[in-house]
Amino acid sequence: MRKIKGKTNTTEKEFVFEFKAGRNHCVLKVPLEFPVKENVSDLHGRLMLLHKIPCFVEHDLKNRLLAFIESETLEDYNRDAEAALQRLTSGEVDINKLTNSWAKAYTETTLEHARPEEPSWDEDFADVYHELIHSPASDTLLNLEHSYYVSVSELIGERDMEIKKLQERQAAEMDKVMQELGKTMSDQDVNTVASQHFDAQQDLENKWANELKQVTGIQKQEYQEWVIKLHQDLHNPNNSTISEEIKVQPGQLAEGGELGAGLFEEQQQLEESFTIHLGAQLKTMHNLRLVRANVLDFCKHRHHGSSGAKLRRLQTALSLYSSSLCGLALLVDNRVNSYSGIKRDFATVSKECTDFHFPRLSEQLEVVQQVVLYARAQRSSKQKEQPEMPKNGTTEDKNKNIERNSSNILPGEFYITRHSNLSEVHIVFHLCVDDNVRSGNLTARDPAIMGLRNILKVCCTHDITTITIPLLLVHDMAEEMTIPWCLKRAELVFKCVKGFMMEMASWDGGISRTVQFLVPQSISEDMFYQLSNMLPQIFRVSSTLTLTSKR
Amino acid sequence: MQALQGAELGAFTFFASPLPHDVCGSNGLPLTPNSIKILGRFQILKTITHPRLCQYVDISRGKHERLIVVAEHYEHSLQDLLKQHHPVSSEKVLQIAYEVLEGLTFMNRHGVVHRALSPHNVLLDRKGKVKLAKFGLYHMTDHGADVDFPIGYPSYLAPEVIAQGSFYLSEGSVVEAPLPSGPKADVWSVGMLLFELCAGRQLLQNIEISERLKFIITLGCMDDIVTVLAEEHGCLDVIRELPDNVQTLLRRCLMFPPSKRPTPAQLLEEPVFVGVASLYPAYQNPVSLFSSSPRCAHLELPEDLNELCKGDGQDYLSERTVDEVYHLWCLAGGDLEKELTNKDIIQSKPPVCTLPNFIFEDGESFGQSRDRSFLLDDTTVTLSLCQLRNRLRDVTGEAYYPLLEDEHCGLPQSNSSTELSAASNLPLIIRERDTEYQLTRIVLFDRLLANPRERNCPLVWKEARVDVPPLLRGLAWATLLGVEGDIQAKYDAIDKDTAIPTDRQIEVDIPRCHQYDELLSSPQGHVKFRRVLKAWVVSHPDLVYWQGLDSLCAPFLYLNFNNEALAYACMSAFIPKYLYDFFLKDNSHVIQEYLTVFSQMIAFHDPELSNHLNEIGFIPDLYAIPWFLTMFTHVFPLHKIFHLWDTLLLGNSSFPFCIGVAILQQLRDRLLANGFNECILLFSDLPEIDIERCVRESISLFCWTPKSATFRQHAQTAKPLSDGIGIGRPLAYYSSDYHDYPDLPNTDLSREPLKLSELKAEVSPRISSEDLIDLCELTGPAHFKTPVKRPKTVKTKILAVDIRSAEDFGRGHVQGSVNIPYGSACTPDGELLQCPATHLLATHKGRVIVVLSNIMKNAATFAAHLVKLNYPRVCVLDGGMNKMKSTGLLTVPSPQI
């Protein structure tokens, strides 16, 4: 709550009305509460009815009532206004503080008084890029991006090769050392060799990491410069060299049928789509999709050769600065880094291709880490300010946790990274979950579910129209995740998401969205179909439109 | 509302402040977004019409809590006068002061305070008269509580306003909101404005805002504020030379203590304006349509009637009211957001650039920089009417002033009339978006509805059969429902405040009724809902509140949002017509009878479906009660209800049956394919229904239904025809003869009431002898009160089947009837026995089959049998052949030789 409605001090005043009926002198006294909220005509009607007032004084009563209310209200206004002025002269309110808060209000909320905007390179580039990608130049842009991608992946290949070679060599060396162990070599020697190996490996990796960083940095700079230049050239076409290039470029979007490599991979992907209606009377239409895939499939780039990869790439590029973004929810642990597990895998994927628009993942995570620290500080200072805030046991537990390490995040909280270099996704929500999600009795009040709700809310406020959610709230299956466990979890998430989507309709007026439910690659086909049977029972699937009517 | 005249339409936009994260209201439901609150509070501003105020027209919600307000607009303002940098003459100053105060007085009377006066909000129309703009901003934002920005401009804020503090707070801290400002705050602003005009320059322009405000506050210590201001701005000489009355005026306005400052109304009465006041006649509020006083009371015709005919001659569009012009502007492709984006008022950043970095579990976000595009830019953009005028270029003057007395006056006789009548064949959805068509319809309905009701009623009915223009739907429905009289006084006299036991239920239902709609979900909407519902409950002591009444109220309230009295009156007229006695405390007999008749109607129109539904036990009681109790308002969204009711209101009380059957038929395939459980699921959340098709089909079903088939003993009994209403009756809706209203007075040939159990036992509806006579075109002796014959559109759509024995048949039967003796009609396995008569039956499948017999039970069983065999449109003659005998209309075949 930021604003609290002012205490409007209500006062009661008595309205007196006298009239003569025949020889009787009648007096009507009505206590009225000020400020008057109800409709005067209603009040008048009620008085007439309640006190059986003769109709010949009807108009008189109404006029007097109106006049009374008007004058009394005015008096109240006067009183309040004078009191406010009095507070200033008496020094109860500091005049400087007051005027400064007004000044702040004007400068922070109105364009007229706001400080002029510093030009932001990011946004200018966004405009330029958005314009170009929607022009014939888009093909050239994509090809350029692809060629950069190819060179990076060559580099990565080289790196992997070299690391592999090193590892092989080291393994051989180690073998030799092990054989000599006890003969000419002592344990000490083995340890030394091992640490040497380790250092060598580190050095190599660092070297490559640096190289990659440098290359992508150069690529990014080149790319951005080129885009700006291209944009300028397109606007004064006289001295254009690049725009000529574009004209010469044949449309390469229609690709050959090089289906080879990707085919096997994609066969394993199962998916089913549904169109649903939400709402009791006014219905809004949404698309749902149930997909069995690896979560990183939405991020990984494929070579242009593979089917549809370039089209997908174009689609993602076209919508990057538009108001129909694609998001993905990634389940992570409570540390903001990319050292282990799915976070590491994701980081690897995000490095496969240079991000020409946004900072590198590591840089973004650094910013997030700063923001988390700042947010925590804000929170705790606020909590100290208002000790009367109701605290229940769980929040206190949490507070202890935070105090232990305030740079960590808690279940249900999430951070957001932005990417232009992933294949089908612009926005990644890193939702923190704990081991609780593996348990069988997750409730709708669980932080992870609340996190989903907030993700959907951000989707609303930031025009993310396609969002992919892990249906079972896990990325990999484990022993304890039995069929009943899966069904129960899927039902919970389906139902909660349905509720949130209905709520969303009131936030944004019911814009049509696509929600993709992702299930791990490792669940059985049978399980998948069970889930896909469950979906239409929870969501109302729209009927097929019959174009030929029988009647 | 006033005519457009020389005005333009203007739009400006602002953002409502976002709600705090995850806070629920006291009733546990999510909070209403501030933009919706504003939208609800805005509505009343549309009714504030005064020549000194810019008429508010519309408000619309955009993405992310954006609001766009449309109002009358003028390009010139006091700002332009100030830009000339020399003092304005004192006469002019007095006039401007008077006009501004007139406007302020009028809005104060409606409880509205301006708070945002500034030179650019005091507009000047083409004649140089003042028009106040943005006068409702303070009101609609709940005294600034629903927006982030402060309302008002620093230089013009009254000292007490400054002292009470601003709403805006930096993140986090909690501060008490300032108390609302009173009318006197505006008088100070007027004083500053007038001072600027007198001095010919703007005040306090080059100082920091906080210094400016400090200066205003410290004026309180000065003896002579006007002199101090003049000295500060180096224009003491100019001010000194002003005439005394202007100086007095300035001093009165710039009176520091609010208690000594006059209100606008008081100021108007002061002697300074003696010379000016006489120039301005008092403004008369136009009398509303439903009023006890004569509307022509203040009408003054000029001496020379030709004066009236003088005009620019060509620009008919500007004679239409502002809201009509705006409506047409929208139809002609107007897009508010686009207009504002073109003028760079709406600037949006790509959403990917404005994402937050980190979000707490409770939804609070961090790491988002303040988006500049959310800052207030309250520039008003003029909406160009060029496109609309272009579109309407070819519409002739006759279209704007149609002759209603003309014999075929439906559409104006102009060059475009053929085009328009062609347009009237297009689907409704297209017609409602067609600019020219809507223009002619609006003009026509406007004329019809504004005229004396009795005379134009038939015309309204006739035109409403074509369609009802959305803009005037509220009034058109009121006319169709026969609402008249001083409804406002009636409504005011009802006690809507005293607590009654129903309150709790109403309170629970309202936040669940059509809440997808912005108007009805706004707090204002809820208040109005409550009042109208309570008024209805209180004023109908014999009836009670049943859940569903709220849905029933919704369309009326939506259409007459600013006129609760009319909403109440329409609802009160609607319920006895269509839902007579449905809201009795014990309504089971009414509903049971209704549902039984409904299931007979299903059997009558769709025997196959009826058989299936009966077989799986999916009876109307399970799904149709909310349909009929709320007249479908519970199941459809408002925009569909409008189209449905446009037709429903023209039909009689049995039309809803046909709608019900039409809905079932649209879902026919799915119902037939499914069992009980699936059907229940299907209806628990009714799928999308194509409403135009539903309307079309229900009309055709209605035409096929003999009028007595839907006879109900608990229906409203026909009132004796009074003459006044009688004239309004040549209203047969559909081309068929089945006359809608009133349900004709009973004669001995009408249907007689049946016990519910008996009614329930019969699968097919009974029809009266009257209907039979009518359908078979039997002509009888003149004394029979058969309805007046009209040319038949369908040759014969009836087949009478006489199931008496052949002998009885021989003794006298209805002309054209077929004899299938009951005893020998069927084979043991349920098939009809093959004979010429049954063959005839089979070949005439699809016609209305009337089963005639002496014994009702046999007839009913036979009819049920036919239904089983999927014969549609089977009905039974009520009272049997005995009733027919008394008419003397039976024919005896000449003995065969």
From TrEMBL, chain A:
Basic and acidic residues: bias regions: 382-403
GO BP of this protein: regulation of mast cell degranulation
Cited Pfam families: Fy-3 (PF10154)
Matching entries from InterPro entries are given as:
Fy-3
GO cellular component terms, alphabetically, are: cytoplasm
Q: Where is this region: Disordered?
A: 379-405
Could you identify this protein by its name? CL004 protein
TrEMBL record, chain B:
Q: Which residues form the Rab-GAP TBC domain?
A: 467-652
Boundaries of every Protein kinase domain copy: 1-273
Q: GO MF terms on file? A: ATP binding; protein kinase activity
Q: Which UniProt keywords apply?
A: Cytoplasm, Cytoskeleton, Endosome
- Pfam annotation, one family: RabGAP-TBC
Q: Where in the cell is it found?
A: Cytoplasm, Cytoskeleton, Spindle; Early endosome; Midbody
GO cellular component terms, semicolon-separated: early endosome; midbody; nucleus; spindle
User: Some GO term, biological process aspect, for this entry: which one?
Assistant: heart development
Taxonomically, which superkingdom? Eukaryota
Which residues are in the Rhodanese domain? 801-893
Q: InterPro entries per the record?
A: Kinase-like_dom_sf, Prot_kinase_dom, Rab-GAP-TBC_dom, Rab-GAP_TBC_sf, Rhodanese-like_dom, Rhodanese-like_dom_sf
Protein function = Component of the FERRY complex (Five-subunit Endosomal Rab5 and RNA/ribosome intermediary). The FERRY complex directly interacts with mRNAs and RAB5A, and functions as a RAB5A effector involved in the localization and the distribution of specific mRNAs most likely by mediating their endosomal transport. The complex recruits mRNAs and ribosomes to early endosomes through direct mRNA-interaction. Also involved in the modulation of mTOR signaling and expression of mTOR complex components. Involved in the control of actin-cytoskeleton organization.
Write out the similarity annotation: Belongs to the protein kinase superfamily.
What protein name does the entry list?
A: TBC domain-containing protein kinase-like protein
Q: Which organism is it from?
A: Electrophorus electricus (Electric eel)
